[in-house]
Amino acid sequence: MSEWTKNYAKELTAQMTLEEKMSQLVYKSPAIERLGIPAYNWWNEALHGVARAGVATVFPQAIGMAAAFDSELVNKVGDVVSTEGRAKFNQFQKHGDRDIYKGLTYWAPNVNIFRDPRWGRGHETYGEDPFLTSELGVAYIKGLQGDDKDHLKSAACAKHFAVHSGPEAQRHEFDAKASKHDMYDTYLYAFKRCVKEAGVEAVMGAYNRVNGEPACGSKTLLTDILRGEWGFEGHVVSDCWAIKDFNENHHVTSSIEESAAMALNNGCDLNCGVAYMYMNRAYEQGLVTEEAITKAVERLMEVRIRLGMMKDYPSPYDDIPYEKVECKEHIEIALEAARRSMVLLHNKDNMLPLDKNRIKTLAVIGPNANSRDALIGNYVGTSSRYITILEGISDYVGDDVRIIYSEGCHLYKDKTEGLADARDRFAEAVTAAEQADVVIMCLGLDAMLEGEEGDAGNEYASGDKLGLKLPGLQQELLETVTAVGKPVVVVLAAGSAIDLSWAHEHTNAVIDVWYPGARGGKAVAEVLFGDYSPCGKLPVTFYKDTDKLPDFCDYSMANRTYRYAKDNIFYPFGYGLSYSNVNFKNAAAGTYNCGIKDDVAVSIEVTNEGAYAVHEAVQAYVRYTKPEDTEPGYQLKGLVNIALEPSETKRVELTLSARDFALVTDEGKCIVRPGEYEIAIGGQQPDDVSRKLTGKSVDVLRVTRNGEAQEVEY
After folding, report:
1. Is 648 tagged catalytic?
2. Predicted confidence band at 567 (pLDDT cuts at 50, 70, 90)?
3. Which helix (H) or strand (E) holds 620?
4. Which of 266, 325, 533, 606 has its CA 20 to 30 Å from the CA of residue 669?
């Protein structure tokens, strides 16, 4: 930001009384009319569309957008979200509506690492990989904030800093313990890139402690790393009511005043909650200084100035009209994102795509077939229209194909009607299958089963899953319907890994559609019937089961995610089939011998030899040939997403930096070592499971780095 903005913020803050300054530290900040400062509510959400403020375009949930493996797409979504947010803000201001969820400070994206498939909030993230999370987080932030640092389109917030991924039921008292290796290798990586590359305006702390310190008052995280090592200049906001946990649940302070002082003194500027309402008493007790309060308020004024909230510094976005909200163009981008998010996991004998000209009767069965909740995920806006999977299929086939629908079973209970016997829809489901030529089974979860503690209303551990099995009677329903003997296509709507081993062995096709957005049923139908080829890749590992996973509370990365897991992989990270046939050849490196800190350019020819246009995610993985015992295996370090028409060939180039070859040591140092490295480049991981599932291998290049080991910036 410019020095002018900083100076303006200082001048504005200097005119406030101490009481006025303290009033600005809470998320619902009152007006200071004599200084021309309007009232402002900082709390707003935009995880995958403007949330909780009425009508907006509802995009696929973040985990679904991650499956597209395309930063340009995610950037485009971010830009649309900020356009709609501005349009709504402009109009709300004219009518004096300054309520919660009506501002321009969006508490998104969630760049935590989805380290364990049981975590209920994992679908808010971009998956398990630090590199992919960084690429997409940076892209979304840039879309939200725009290109002008002094005139923000909106303000993004990277959350939850920095080691946070369950268990939800224990988050208010839990201590996440992570080694320096895991901190710098996994948990901090995306946050750093969001700060250094995207210039994210805000960072939100987590509820839990991190290595003994409450995240929202952690000197290590907020002072030493965020502001010290990274030079972060934006503001820090607490998670909601997290600061009172310091004394009530973490027991690191003895009073709410001490908690407020601890957070403010260590760099938390804004409080979502009530703790900072006690700041005056903390000041009177000598726990905080006016200088510390002033510094926090200056940072808060800086962002409000840059957002154009002061009359003498207007925003160039003030004229974005309300007509932009859920306009035709934005709806089409949401549908594009939904199509691009879908991952084809299994397609025996090319069962998909379906040919409606060869089908007279289609059975659509399952608790997610006609569910709006299965479309939207959490932190969501309101759509003017919802298209469920059943509705999308019915609209697509029209009168040409008869649709027979059955809910089959409740999402997680043993009956759909309260006074009925268990399995009260099984007979109907079997009958539908008997009448049909093809059966589409719509199974999975919704945000009531996996989500945030306090929001998810089920028996699954406050939003976390107990395991990977389909809940309720869904697995039994699947087996019962499949036994009828008709071709079965499984459509999974869920935000996390599910055990699909039985479905893979006994059904004809499996496609993961995540939570595809408000009109996602239209996109699902278009993909099922071949208007578009699925091109998504898994942003998380699908494990065989949880038996070999570490304890949920263990924050060591050992045996977690594709980077560290040694076995137990059913569907690998980076895996996904398509209706086309994309092949890779002639991989090459710009150099096979280089200096210890030199960049390495790699390239490969990609050809679409099939009949469908596709988007292909070209993935580059790096591995040291003589790894340390605790070192990750192959790691994604390069990604380019390209569009290919049938018979089209493109040569894809990408550059790997010295950092991409580095090891983060047990002491937290980032070291590039001399010796031989493998670079695997293609459309998947270079692992045996991917090779077996796709029937394709990945080219592996060997590059030698020469010289003495050197430390680089992590």
Report:
1. no
2. confident
3. strand 614-624
4. 266
- Coil, strand or helix: which one is 562? helix
Q: Is 239 a catalytic residue?
A: yes
In three-state form (DSSP H/G/I as H, E/B as E, the rest C), the secondary structure along 254-311 is CCHHHHHHHHHHCCCCEECCCHHHHHHHHHHCCCCCHHHHHHHHHHHHHHHHHCCCCC
More confident of the two residues 461 and 518: 518
Sequential DSSP letters for 422-481: TTTTHHHHHHHHHH-SEEEEEEE--TTTSS-TTT--SSSGGG--SSSSPPTTHHHHHHHH
Closest to 584 (Cα-Cα) out of 607, 600, 561: 607
Helices 426-435, 474-482: inter-axial angle, 10-degree rounding = 30
Q: What is the fold, at CATH topology level, of the domain defined by 582-711?
A: Immunoglobulin-like (2.60.40)
Residue that is written with structure tokens 């040694």 in the block: 566
> Would you state the pLDDT for residue 547?
87
How far apart CA 436 and CA 224 sit, in angstroms, is 63
Structure tokens at 46: 């935009």
Candidates 201, 373, 450, 526; catalytic one: 450
Q: Write down the architecture of domain 3-27+156-306 according to CATH.
A: Alpha-Beta Barrel (3.20)
Catalytic residue among 239, 269, 499, 687: 239
Q: Fold for 334-571, please state it.
A: Rossmann fold (3.40.50)
| Sheet architecture: strand order including 663-664 | 663-664, 670-672, 710-711
Average pLDDT value for residue range 307-334: 96
